[in-house]
Amino acid sequence: MNGLIEQWIDWLPSLVDGLGVSVQLAVVSLLIGLPLGLAEALLVASPNRIVRWITLAVVEFGRGTPTLVLLYLIYYGLPSQGLVLPAFGSAVVALSFMTGAYTSEIIRASLQAVPRGLVEAAAALGINRWGTFRFILFPEGIRIAIPALMGFAIQLFQTTSLVFLITLPELLSRAYSIGSTTFQYTSVLALAGVLYLLVTLPSGWLAALLEKRMGRHLA
Amino acid sequence: MISVANLKKSYGDHTVLDGVSIEIQRGEVVAMIGPSGAGKSTLLRCLNLLERPDSGRITIGDTVVDLPAKIPVRTLETLRKTAGMVFQSFNLFPHLSVLRNVSLAQEYVLGRDAKAAHQRSMELLERVGLADKAGSYPARLSGGQQQRIAIARALAMEPEVMLFDEPTSALDPELGLDVLAVMRELAASGMTMVVVTHEIHFAQDVSDRVVMMADGGIIEQGDPAQVLSSPANPRTQRFLKAVIDR
Protein backbone atom coordinates (compact mmCIF):
# COMPACT_ATOMS: atom_id res chain seq x y z
CA MET A 1 0.00 0.00 0.00
CA ASN A 2 2.83 2.35 0.89
CA GLY A 3 4.43 1.54 -2.44
CA LEU A 4 1.26 2.49 -4.25
CA ILE A 5 1.00 5.85 -2.50
CA GLU A 6 4.65 6.59 -3.23
CA GLN A 7 4.16 5.67 -6.87
CA TRP A 8 1.13 7.89 -7.13
CA ILE A 9 2.96 10.80 -5.55
CA ASP A 10 5.78 10.22 -8.01
CA TRP A 11 3.43 10.27 -11.00
CA LEU A 12 1.16 13.01 -9.81
CA PRO A 13 3.07 16.06 -11.15
CA SER A 14 3.14 14.68 -14.68
CA LEU A 15 -0.51 13.63 -14.55
CA VAL A 16 -1.63 16.95 -13.12
CA ASP A 17 0.16 18.67 -15.99
CA GLY A 18 -1.72 16.38 -18.34
CA LEU A 19 -4.99 17.19 -16.60
CA GLY A 20 -4.21 20.86 -17.22
CA VAL A 21 -3.90 20.17 -20.94
CA SER A 22 -7.19 18.23 -20.93
CA VAL A 23 -9.02 21.04 -19.15
CA GLN A 24 -7.51 23.64 -21.46
CA LEU A 25 -8.53 21.65 -24.50
CA ALA A 26 -12.10 21.23 -23.24
CA VAL A 27 -12.43 24.91 -22.29
CA VAL A 28 -11.04 26.24 -25.58
CA SER A 29 -13.23 23.83 -27.57
CA LEU A 30 -16.30 24.98 -25.66
CA LEU A 31 -15.42 28.66 -26.08
CA ILE A 32 -15.27 28.17 -29.83
CA GLY A 33 -17.87 25.42 -30.13
CA LEU A 34 -20.74 26.99 -28.18
CA PRO A 35 -20.99 30.20 -30.25
CA LEU A 36 -20.64 27.96 -33.29
CA GLY A 37 -23.54 25.86 -32.02
CA LEU A 38 -25.68 28.97 -31.49
CA ALA A 39 -24.86 30.17 -35.00
CA GLU A 40 -25.70 26.78 -36.47
CA ALA A 41 -28.94 26.62 -34.50
CA LEU A 42 -30.00 29.98 -35.95
CA LEU A 43 -28.84 29.23 -39.50
CA VAL A 44 -30.71 25.92 -39.54
CA ALA A 45 -33.87 28.01 -39.06
CA SER A 46 -32.89 30.45 -41.82
CA PRO A 47 -35.60 31.33 -44.33
CA ASN A 48 -32.98 30.83 -47.06
CA ARG A 49 -33.18 27.23 -48.20
CA ILE A 50 -29.57 26.96 -49.33
CA VAL A 51 -28.21 28.34 -46.04
CA ARG A 52 -30.49 25.94 -44.21
CA TRP A 53 -29.32 22.90 -46.19
CA ILE A 54 -25.63 23.69 -45.92
CA THR A 55 -25.92 24.22 -42.16
CA LEU A 56 -27.90 21.03 -41.79
CA ALA A 57 -25.21 19.12 -43.70
CA VAL A 58 -22.47 20.56 -41.46
CA VAL A 59 -24.46 19.68 -38.31
CA GLU A 60 -25.25 16.16 -39.47
CA PHE A 61 -21.62 15.58 -40.48
CA GLY A 62 -20.43 16.81 -37.08
CA ARG A 63 -22.91 14.63 -35.20
CA GLY A 64 -22.68 11.60 -37.42
CA THR A 65 -18.91 11.26 -37.69
CA PRO A 66 -17.06 9.54 -34.85
CA THR A 67 -14.90 12.11 -33.07
CA LEU A 68 -11.83 9.98 -33.60
CA VAL A 69 -12.40 10.03 -37.36
CA LEU A 70 -12.67 13.84 -37.21
CA LEU A 71 -9.44 14.00 -35.25
CA TYR A 72 -7.57 11.77 -37.69
CA LEU A 73 -9.00 13.61 -40.70
CA ILE A 74 -7.70 16.90 -39.36
CA TYR A 75 -4.39 15.75 -37.91
CA TYR A 76 -3.35 13.21 -40.55
CA GLY A 77 -5.63 14.15 -43.45
CA LEU A 78 -5.19 17.91 -43.74
CA PRO A 79 -1.38 17.84 -44.11
CA SER A 80 -1.84 15.97 -47.41
CA GLN A 81 -3.90 19.01 -48.49
CA GLY A 82 -1.00 21.23 -47.48
CA LEU A 83 -2.41 22.31 -44.14
CA VAL A 84 -0.43 21.19 -41.11
CA LEU A 85 -1.91 21.89 -37.69
CA PRO A 86 -0.14 21.12 -34.42
CA ALA A 87 -1.70 18.44 -32.25
CA PHE A 88 -3.41 20.92 -29.91
CA GLY A 89 -4.74 22.94 -32.84
CA SER A 90 -6.07 19.83 -34.55
CA ALA A 91 -7.74 18.67 -31.38
CA VAL A 92 -9.37 22.10 -30.87
CA VAL A 93 -10.66 22.16 -34.43
CA ALA A 94 -12.12 18.65 -34.21
CA LEU A 95 -13.68 19.08 -30.76
CA SER A 96 -15.06 22.58 -31.52
CA PHE A 97 -16.63 21.28 -34.70
CA MET A 98 -18.16 18.39 -32.81
CA THR A 99 -19.30 20.71 -30.00
CA GLY A 100 -20.90 23.09 -32.50
CA ALA A 101 -22.84 20.29 -34.14
CA TYR A 102 -24.13 18.72 -30.92
CA THR A 103 -24.92 21.93 -29.07
CA SER A 104 -26.68 23.42 -32.09
CA GLU A 105 -29.31 20.71 -31.73
CA ILE A 106 -29.62 21.32 -27.98
CA ILE A 107 -29.95 25.07 -28.53
CA ARG A 108 -32.37 24.74 -31.44
CA ALA A 109 -34.67 22.47 -29.45
CA SER A 110 -34.47 24.79 -26.44
CA LEU A 111 -35.35 27.86 -28.49
CA GLN A 112 -38.31 25.97 -29.89
CA ALA A 113 -39.39 25.03 -26.39
CA VAL A 114 -39.82 28.69 -25.38
CA PRO A 115 -43.59 29.16 -25.08
CA ARG A 116 -45.08 30.64 -28.24
CA GLY A 117 -47.12 33.08 -26.13
CA LEU A 118 -43.99 34.91 -24.99
CA VAL A 119 -42.96 35.57 -28.56
CA GLU A 120 -46.48 36.77 -29.34
CA ALA A 121 -46.46 39.04 -26.30
CA ALA A 122 -43.19 40.57 -27.48
CA ALA A 123 -44.61 41.03 -30.98
CA ALA A 124 -47.77 42.62 -29.59
CA LEU A 125 -45.59 45.13 -27.73
CA GLY A 126 -44.01 46.11 -31.04
CA ILE A 127 -40.66 44.48 -30.24
CA ASN A 128 -38.96 43.51 -33.50
CA ARG A 129 -37.44 40.13 -34.36
CA TRP A 130 -33.95 40.97 -33.14
CA GLY A 131 -35.26 42.44 -29.88
CA THR A 132 -37.45 39.39 -29.35
CA PHE A 133 -34.46 37.13 -29.81
CA ARG A 134 -32.17 39.20 -27.62
CA PHE A 135 -34.52 39.93 -24.72
CA ILE A 136 -36.90 36.96 -24.74
CA LEU A 137 -36.00 33.96 -26.89
CA PHE A 138 -32.30 33.78 -26.07
CA PRO A 139 -32.51 34.26 -22.29
CA GLU A 140 -35.51 31.94 -22.01
CA GLY A 141 -34.02 29.36 -24.37
CA ILE A 142 -30.63 29.33 -22.64
CA ARG A 143 -32.33 28.56 -19.33
CA ILE A 144 -33.96 25.57 -20.94
CA ALA A 145 -30.67 24.52 -22.58
CA ILE A 146 -28.36 24.85 -19.54
CA PRO A 147 -28.77 21.35 -18.06
CA ALA A 148 -28.21 19.64 -21.41
CA LEU A 149 -25.29 21.93 -22.27
CA MET A 150 -23.61 21.27 -18.92
CA GLY A 151 -24.08 17.55 -19.47
CA PHE A 152 -22.52 17.89 -22.87
CA ALA A 153 -19.56 19.86 -21.49
CA ILE A 154 -18.78 17.08 -19.00
CA GLN A 155 -18.99 14.53 -21.78
CA LEU A 156 -16.71 16.65 -23.94
CA PHE A 157 -14.17 16.78 -21.15
CA GLN A 158 -14.10 12.99 -21.10
CA THR A 159 -13.86 12.90 -24.89
CA THR A 160 -10.61 14.88 -24.70
CA SER A 161 -8.98 11.59 -23.67
CA LEU A 162 -9.26 10.53 -27.34
CA VAL A 163 -6.60 13.01 -28.35
CA PHE A 164 -3.93 10.84 -26.76
CA LEU A 165 -4.13 9.05 -30.14
CA ILE A 166 -2.68 12.12 -31.86
CA THR A 167 0.09 12.32 -29.24
CA LEU A 168 -1.14 15.39 -27.42
CA PRO A 169 0.31 15.15 -23.88
CA GLU A 170 -2.98 15.33 -22.01
CA LEU A 171 -3.94 13.27 -18.98
CA LEU A 172 -4.51 9.90 -20.63
CA SER A 173 -1.39 10.03 -22.77
CA ARG A 174 0.71 10.93 -19.71
CA ALA A 175 -0.78 7.98 -17.87
CA TYR A 176 -0.21 5.72 -20.85
CA SER A 177 3.41 6.71 -21.21
CA ILE A 178 4.04 6.15 -17.50
CA GLY A 179 2.37 2.79 -17.91
CA SER A 180 4.57 1.84 -20.83
CA THR A 181 7.75 2.51 -18.87
CA THR A 182 6.69 1.10 -15.50
CA PHE A 183 4.21 -1.56 -16.66
CA GLN A 184 1.99 -0.40 -13.78
CA TYR A 185 -0.93 0.22 -16.15
CA THR A 186 -3.71 -0.55 -13.70
CA SER A 187 -2.30 1.65 -11.02
CA VAL A 188 -1.55 4.67 -13.19
CA LEU A 189 -4.82 4.45 -15.14
CA ALA A 190 -6.73 4.26 -11.86
CA LEU A 191 -5.01 7.44 -10.74
CA ALA A 192 -5.86 9.06 -14.08
CA GLY A 193 -9.47 8.02 -13.56
CA VAL A 194 -9.48 9.63 -10.14
CA LEU A 195 -8.15 12.87 -11.64
CA TYR A 196 -10.88 12.86 -14.32
CA LEU A 197 -13.44 12.37 -11.55
CA LEU A 198 -11.99 15.32 -9.64
CA VAL A 199 -13.15 17.48 -12.53
CA THR A 200 -16.35 15.75 -13.64
CA LEU A 201 -17.94 15.29 -10.23
CA PRO A 202 -17.73 18.94 -9.09
CA SER A 203 -18.80 19.98 -12.60
CA GLY A 204 -21.88 17.85 -12.21
CA TRP A 205 -22.66 19.45 -8.84
CA LEU A 206 -22.09 22.88 -10.32
CA ALA A 207 -24.47 22.02 -13.15
CA ALA A 208 -27.18 20.98 -10.71
CA LEU A 209 -26.67 24.14 -8.68
CA LEU A 210 -26.79 26.36 -11.73
CA GLU A 211 -29.91 24.64 -12.99
CA LYS A 212 -31.59 25.30 -9.67
CA ARG A 213 -30.51 28.92 -9.56
CA MET A 214 -31.56 29.71 -13.10
CA GLY A 215 -34.90 28.04 -12.60
CA ARG A 216 -35.54 30.11 -9.50
CA HIS A 217 -37.85 32.59 -11.17
CA LEU A 218 -39.58 30.10 -13.40
CA ALA A 219 -42.76 28.34 -12.48
CA MET B 1 -60.85 54.43 -34.47
CA ILE B 2 -61.01 50.87 -35.76
CA SER B 3 -62.48 49.90 -39.06
CA VAL B 4 -62.52 46.37 -40.39
CA ALA B 5 -63.81 45.68 -43.87
CA ASN B 6 -64.63 42.27 -45.31
CA LEU B 7 -61.95 40.45 -43.36
CA LYS B 8 -61.42 36.84 -44.37
CA LYS B 9 -59.24 34.16 -42.86
CA SER B 10 -59.16 30.43 -43.30
CA TYR B 11 -56.92 27.58 -42.29
CA GLY B 12 -56.88 25.19 -45.22
CA ASP B 13 -60.52 24.73 -46.12
CA HIS B 14 -61.76 25.70 -42.66
CA THR B 15 -63.10 29.25 -42.78
CA VAL B 16 -62.53 31.12 -39.51
CA LEU B 17 -63.53 34.63 -40.58
CA ASP B 18 -66.02 34.86 -43.36
CA GLY B 19 -65.93 38.48 -44.49
CA VAL B 20 -66.24 40.32 -41.17
CA SER B 21 -66.82 44.09 -41.13
CA ILE B 22 -67.08 46.28 -38.05
CA GLU B 23 -66.56 49.93 -37.09
CA ILE B 24 -65.49 50.90 -33.59
CA GLN B 25 -65.50 54.51 -32.40
CA ARG B 26 -62.83 56.15 -30.28
CA GLY B 27 -63.61 55.57 -26.61
CA GLU B 28 -66.04 52.78 -27.34
CA VAL B 29 -65.93 49.54 -25.35
CA VAL B 30 -66.98 46.56 -27.41
CA ALA B 31 -67.58 43.15 -25.88
CA MET B 32 -67.34 40.23 -28.28
CA ILE B 33 -69.21 37.13 -27.24
CA GLY B 34 -70.02 33.85 -28.88
CA PRO B 35 -69.25 30.15 -28.76
CA SER B 36 -65.67 28.94 -29.06
CA GLY B 37 -64.66 28.54 -32.66
CA ALA B 38 -66.83 31.50 -33.66
CA GLY B 39 -63.77 33.48 -34.71
CA LYS B 40 -63.73 36.08 -31.89
CA SER B 41 -60.14 35.53 -30.88
CA THR B 42 -59.00 35.22 -34.47
CA LEU B 43 -60.66 38.54 -35.31
CA LEU B 44 -58.97 40.16 -32.32
CA ARG B 45 -55.59 38.68 -33.21
CA CYS B 46 -56.01 39.88 -36.79
CA LEU B 47 -56.40 43.44 -35.52
CA ASN B 48 -52.74 43.60 -34.46
CA LEU B 49 -51.69 41.09 -37.11
CA LEU B 50 -50.63 38.31 -34.78
CA GLU B 51 -52.80 36.40 -37.22
CA ARG B 52 -52.45 37.37 -40.85
CA PRO B 53 -55.83 37.70 -42.54
CA ASP B 54 -56.18 36.38 -46.09
CA SER B 55 -57.97 39.42 -47.42
CA GLY B 56 -59.81 42.55 -46.38
CA ARG B 57 -58.80 45.87 -44.88
CA ILE B 58 -57.98 46.90 -41.32
CA THR B 59 -57.69 50.51 -40.22
CA ILE B 60 -56.60 51.44 -36.72
CA GLY B 61 -56.06 55.14 -36.11
CA ASP B 62 -54.07 56.35 -39.10
CA THR B 63 -52.67 52.96 -39.99
CA VAL B 64 -54.22 51.10 -42.89
CA VAL B 65 -53.50 47.49 -43.75
CA ASP B 66 -54.73 46.15 -47.06
CA LEU B 67 -54.62 42.42 -47.50
CA PRO B 68 -53.38 40.27 -49.14
CA ALA B 69 -50.55 42.69 -50.07
CA LYS B 70 -47.27 42.39 -48.17
CA ILE B 71 -47.31 44.37 -44.91
CA PRO B 72 -44.35 46.75 -44.53
CA VAL B 73 -42.44 46.31 -41.25
CA ARG B 74 -43.10 49.95 -40.32
CA THR B 75 -46.84 49.50 -40.70
CA LEU B 76 -46.68 46.41 -38.54
CA GLU B 77 -44.74 48.26 -35.84
CA THR B 78 -47.05 51.30 -35.87
CA LEU B 79 -50.10 49.10 -35.71
CA ARG B 80 -48.77 47.17 -32.73
CA LYS B 81 -47.79 50.36 -30.96
CA THR B 82 -51.31 51.71 -31.47
CA ALA B 83 -53.02 48.55 -30.24
CA GLY B 84 -52.06 46.96 -26.93
CA MET B 85 -53.01 43.37 -26.27
CA VAL B 86 -53.78 41.33 -23.18
CA PHE B 87 -53.74 37.54 -23.53
CA GLN B 88 -55.74 34.83 -21.84
CA SER B 89 -52.53 33.26 -20.50
CA PHE B 90 -50.91 36.59 -19.43
CA ASN B 91 -47.64 35.77 -21.20
CA LEU B 92 -45.46 37.75 -18.82
CA PHE B 93 -41.74 37.23 -19.43
CA PRO B 94 -40.80 34.80 -16.63
CA HIS B 95 -37.10 35.68 -16.50
CA LEU B 96 -37.77 39.38 -15.97
CA SER B 97 -38.96 41.16 -12.85
CA VAL B 98 -42.41 42.74 -12.88
CA LEU B 99 -40.83 46.16 -13.32
CA ARG B 100 -38.68 44.96 -16.22
CA ASN B 101 -41.69 43.33 -17.85
CA VAL B 102 -43.38 46.73 -17.92
CA SER B 103 -40.34 48.83 -18.83
CA LEU B 104 -38.56 46.68 -21.43
CA ALA B 105 -40.59 47.67 -24.49
CA GLN B 106 -40.80 51.31 -23.36
CA GLU B 107 -37.03 51.48 -23.62
CA TYR B 108 -36.54 49.25 -26.64
CA VAL B 109 -39.53 50.26 -28.77
CA LEU B 110 -40.44 53.77 -27.62
CA GLY B 111 -36.84 54.75 -26.90
CA ARG B 112 -37.57 56.07 -23.43
CA ASP B 113 -34.56 56.39 -21.18
CA ALA B 114 -34.34 54.02 -18.23
CA LYS B 115 -35.41 56.64 -15.71
CA ALA B 116 -38.52 57.74 -17.61
CA ALA B 117 -39.47 54.11 -18.28
CA HIS B 118 -39.03 53.27 -14.61
CA GLN B 119 -41.20 56.19 -13.56
CA ARG B 120 -43.96 55.36 -16.05
CA SER B 121 -43.85 51.69 -15.05
CA MET B 122 -44.29 52.56 -11.39
CA GLU B 123 -47.24 54.85 -12.23
CA LEU B 124 -48.91 52.02 -14.11
CA LEU B 125 -48.18 49.42 -11.46
CA GLU B 126 -49.71 51.83 -8.98
CA ARG B 127 -52.74 52.14 -11.22
CA VAL B 128 -53.29 48.36 -11.31
CA GLY B 129 -52.62 48.20 -7.57
CA LEU B 130 -49.36 46.25 -7.69
CA ALA B 131 -46.62 48.81 -7.13
CA ASP B 132 -45.39 46.71 -4.20
CA LYS B 133 -44.68 43.79 -6.56
CA ALA B 134 -42.29 45.71 -8.82
CA GLY B 135 -39.31 43.61 -7.76
CA SER B 136 -41.07 40.24 -7.83
CA TYR B 137 -40.91 37.68 -10.59
CA PRO B 138 -44.12 36.61 -12.36
CA ALA B 139 -44.03 33.04 -11.07
CA ARG B 140 -44.43 34.36 -7.52
CA LEU B 141 -47.70 36.12 -8.32
CA SER B 142 -51.27 34.91 -8.60
CA GLY B 143 -52.92 34.71 -12.00
CA GLY B 144 -54.99 37.80 -11.29
CA GLN B 145 -51.90 39.77 -10.33
CA GLN B 146 -50.06 38.55 -13.42
CA GLN B 147 -52.92 39.65 -15.64
CA ARG B 148 -53.03 43.11 -14.07
CA ILE B 149 -49.30 43.44 -14.72
CA ALA B 150 -49.88 42.32 -18.30
CA ILE B 151 -52.40 45.16 -18.59
CA ALA B 152 -49.86 47.62 -17.18
CA ARG B 153 -47.27 46.30 -19.62
CA ALA B 154 -49.59 46.90 -22.57
CA LEU B 155 -50.60 50.36 -21.29
CA ALA B 156 -46.93 51.35 -20.99
CA MET B 157 -46.79 51.61 -24.77
CA GLU B 158 -49.45 54.36 -24.58
CA PRO B 159 -51.77 52.49 -26.96
CA GLU B 160 -54.90 54.11 -28.39
CA VAL B 161 -56.74 50.80 -28.39
CA MET B 162 -56.63 47.88 -25.99
CA LEU B 163 -57.43 44.37 -27.17
CA PHE B 164 -58.37 41.81 -24.54
CA ASP B 165 -58.42 38.13 -25.48
CA GLU B 166 -60.49 36.36 -22.81
CA PRO B 167 -58.53 38.12 -20.05
CA THR B 168 -60.27 36.33 -17.18
CA SER B 169 -60.84 32.88 -18.66
CA ALA B 170 -57.71 31.39 -17.07
CA LEU B 171 -58.56 32.81 -13.64
CA ASP B 172 -60.80 31.51 -10.94
CA PRO B 173 -63.77 33.81 -10.46
CA GLU B 174 -62.47 35.67 -7.41
CA LEU B 175 -59.12 36.51 -8.96
CA GLY B 176 -60.88 37.62 -12.10
CA LEU B 177 -62.66 40.35 -10.14
CA ASP B 178 -59.49 42.41 -9.64
CA VAL B 179 -58.74 42.19 -13.34
CA LEU B 180 -62.27 43.23 -14.24
CA ALA B 181 -62.01 46.15 -11.81
CA VAL B 182 -58.90 47.39 -13.60
CA MET B 183 -60.68 47.02 -16.93
CA ARG B 184 -63.69 48.96 -15.67
CA GLU B 185 -61.43 51.77 -14.56
CA LEU B 186 -59.73 51.71 -17.94
CA ALA B 187 -63.07 51.86 -19.75
CA ALA B 188 -64.17 54.74 -17.57
CA SER B 189 -60.98 56.62 -18.46
CA GLY B 190 -62.08 56.62 -22.10
CA MET B 191 -59.85 53.89 -23.54
CA THR B 192 -61.08 52.26 -26.72
CA MET B 193 -61.43 48.59 -25.85
CA VAL B 194 -62.27 45.40 -27.68
CA VAL B 195 -62.88 42.59 -25.23
CA VAL B 196 -63.41 38.96 -26.18
CA THR B 197 -65.12 37.58 -23.11
CA HIS B 198 -67.45 35.08 -21.54
CA GLU B 199 -68.15 37.49 -18.66
CA ILE B 200 -71.72 38.42 -19.45
CA HIS B 201 -71.94 40.74 -16.44
CA PHE B 202 -68.90 42.64 -17.54
CA ALA B 203 -70.33 42.95 -21.04
CA GLN B 204 -73.60 44.19 -19.59
CA ASP B 205 -72.16 46.71 -17.15
CA VAL B 206 -69.14 48.06 -18.91
CA SER B 207 -69.47 47.70 -22.65
CA ASP B 208 -71.12 50.19 -24.98
CA ARG B 209 -71.88 47.50 -27.49
CA VAL B 210 -72.09 43.74 -27.53
CA VAL B 211 -71.09 41.87 -30.67
CA MET B 212 -72.23 38.29 -31.02
CA MET B 213 -70.16 36.11 -33.32
CA ALA B 214 -70.87 32.63 -34.63
CA ASP B 215 -69.43 30.58 -37.48
CA GLY B 216 -66.92 33.19 -38.58
CA GLY B 217 -69.26 36.14 -38.74
CA ILE B 218 -71.08 38.75 -36.67
CA ILE B 219 -74.66 37.58 -36.35
CA GLU B 220 -75.99 40.24 -34.01
CA GLN B 221 -74.79 43.39 -32.32
CA GLY B 222 -76.08 46.40 -30.46
CA ASP B 223 -76.85 47.86 -27.08
CA PRO B 224 -75.77 45.43 -24.32
CA ALA B 225 -79.11 45.50 -22.55
CA GLN B 226 -80.94 44.70 -25.75
CA VAL B 227 -78.59 42.01 -27.10
CA LEU B 228 -78.10 40.30 -23.76
CA SER B 229 -81.67 40.40 -22.44
CA SER B 230 -83.77 40.17 -25.58
CA PRO B 231 -81.62 38.92 -28.44
CA ALA B 232 -83.25 38.80 -31.84
CA ASN B 233 -81.21 36.00 -33.32
CA PRO B 234 -82.13 32.46 -32.17
CA ARG B 235 -78.44 31.49 -32.21
CA THR B 236 -77.72 34.31 -29.73
CA GLN B 237 -80.68 33.22 -27.59
CA ARG B 238 -79.36 29.69 -27.48
CA PHE B 239 -75.82 30.83 -26.63
CA LEU B 240 -76.91 33.16 -23.83
CA LYS B 241 -79.19 30.56 -22.34
CA ALA B 242 -76.26 28.13 -22.23
CA VAL B 243 -74.02 30.73 -20.58
CA ILE B 244 -76.59 31.71 -17.97
CA ASP B 245 -77.66 28.13 -17.20
CA ARG B 246 -74.09 27.15 -16.36
Mean pLDDT of chain B: 92
Number of separate domains of chain A: 1
Order of helices and strands of chain A: HHHHHHHH
Oligomer: heterodimer
Characterise the protein shown here.
- The complex is a heterodimer of chains A (219) and B (246).
- Chain A has 219 residues and is mainly α.
- Chain A has a single domain (2-214), classed as MetI-like fold, CATH 1.10.3720.
- In chain A, 82% of the residues lie in helices and 0% in strands.
- Chain A has eight helices and no strands.
- Chain A has helices at 2-44, 49-64, 67-77, 87-113, 116-124, 129-159, 171-182, 185-214.
- In chain A, helix 5 (116-124) runs antiparallel to helix 6.
- The mean pLDDT of chain A is 90.
- Chain B is an alpha/beta fold and 246 residues long.
- Chain B has one domain (2-245): P-loop containing nucleotide triphosphate hydrolases (Rossmann fold, 3-Layer(aba) Sandwich), CATH 3.40.50.
- Helices cover 39% and strands 26% of the residues of chain B.
- In chain B, strands 6-7-8-3-9-10 form a six-stranded mixed β-sheet, sandwiched between helices. A four-stranded antiparallel β-sheet of chain B has the order 2-1-4-5, covered by helices on one side.
- In chain B, a hairpin with a 2-residue loop joins strand 4 (55-60) and strand 5.
- In chain B, helix 3 (98-108) crosses helix 4 and helix 4 crosses helix 5 (143-155).
- The radius of gyration of chain B is 18 Å and the shape is globular.
- The relative contact order of chain B is 0.17.
- The model of chain B has no long low-confidence stretch (mean pLDDT 92).
- Classes of the chains: A mainly alpha (219), B alpha/beta (246).
